[in-house]
## 1
Amino acid sequence: MSIFLATAATAAMAGTTFDCRADTAYLTIFAPSEEVTAAHRGNVLTLYKVTGDGEVLAADRKIAQVFDGLPTSLYIKLTATDFDVELDISDVDLEAGTSAIAIKGTMPDGETMEVKGTCTVATASESEAS
């Protein structure tokens, strides 16, 4: 599937999008709705998407683990050759459209770095996504 079609498929999927800034890093994180994950036949990790700048995201990253506690929290662990990244979204307020994010990077030698930031939050229902 082309990148365009994959992006269009994600855009048309019901779920929650987080546009986050932490220090100078910028990330967009998509989490599918509970209904979408329940109906999915296959690895639900493929439904979650993380994009952003190379400052905190390695080019060869893959989503290794997700703990989806939405509507209140979301945890995603990304693994890559150069470093692993943990994204911990908390204090989600859907009415205000805000949340907090902590980004923790771990280098192969065990050295870690953590930055905190904020996100704007938007949700799309199945009818809105169609």
## 2
Amino acid sequence: MFPGMLNRSQVRRLAAAMIVFIFLFITLMVTIPATTIPHYYGDTGAWCWITDTSVEASRLKIGSEYAYFWLAAAVSLVLYGIIVVNWLREATAKRDRRRHREALSMVWYPIAFTAEVFPISLVRLLQFNRKGPRPRHGFVVLAAIIIASSGAVNVLLWLLTGRRFGFSDSPEGDEEEDRRRDSYTMPMISPAERGLHPPAATAGGGLPISHPSFPEDPPTTQRLYVPEPYVWMPPRTPPPP
């Protein structure tokens, strides 16, 4: 969720804490109403599992499901928005168009989730309000189809945008990997292997290639030698006998 902010051990602890919290939360949400309100759960048809039709039960219907839809949508918009803004700033500073496209692609995830939960939430609010207008049957069916298609929408988003986030191979990822690989695996070829030799040292300047360390250097250190300009010389051959 926050790239670069947590190390590996912190991510594992956070994931374990979230799993424990989810199981504990579901257990409490199911057991507390069932033990305090008689005939709270039952078969209600196509929608909810709460059989009570009182005003308090309607509030519990919203608070036990749809309020968390809205909370998740709001948190997703805020967190993804923060990440996208930071990525856009980095992409603009570095003139990285690939990073810019990735940031814009991430916006679709919270937008898709909000679009999935909004119709069904609106239908339920209208159904809970006995004095207000009732939603038409076609709109109810459409809202049910949208929320039931959330898995297909997630797969479609992954195919269209997720491939840029490193989950699978892509041409852009290959180019980036090639740039990183070329930056540190370039073979080092000595000038002698290419037929280049430094000019002979003279009294007027130039240092021989085998010059020892300077006196002020510690005995165990070696000064980096910056050679004079190299000139091409043919390989030396031994004199004839």
## 3
Amino acid sequence: TNTQRKPRTDEKTNQVKGVQCHECEGYGHIRIECATYLKKQKKDLTVSWSDEDDSEGEVESEAAKNITALTGRYMSDTDSCDEEKKIIAQLQAERYDNLSKISELNNE
């Protein structure tokens, strides 16, 4: 009788084709297997990587500026000791010269 429901032809077609992709609306695969979806994901990933590279480059550049700003002349204790020894030797030589001149003037 008429109480039995007859399947519609498009429902029958969908059942024969299998699962339907929600991305491209094609049949026989799901979204995570869809070539369109995978290409889109790859493109999005490439864009996000390039954005991250720029920000990392900016961070590295900023860090380089900070290092440059903090760079100065470093003199170790040994270096300053050597410098002091040179100055002392120079002053002693000048003192000796001056004492010699005083001695000569006193002898005249």
## 4
Amino acid sequence: MSMISNTTGHHAAVAQHHDYTADLVSQLVALAEQTGNVAQQLKDGHSAMGSVLEESMNNLLNEPAPTQ
């Protein structure tokens, strides 16, 4: 095998590896964005749950005691 064809093959392999790496990085970025969105949704949901629970507790505490 000549040096020129060997170098060309190496350059093609490097270019292919670069494309693969760039694709992998873009997938990781997308995954990180999705993870951030899910984390925010969980935080929002937890906050909303806390508000509902707090309101329910206040309603219970403010109810007049049942008379017997």
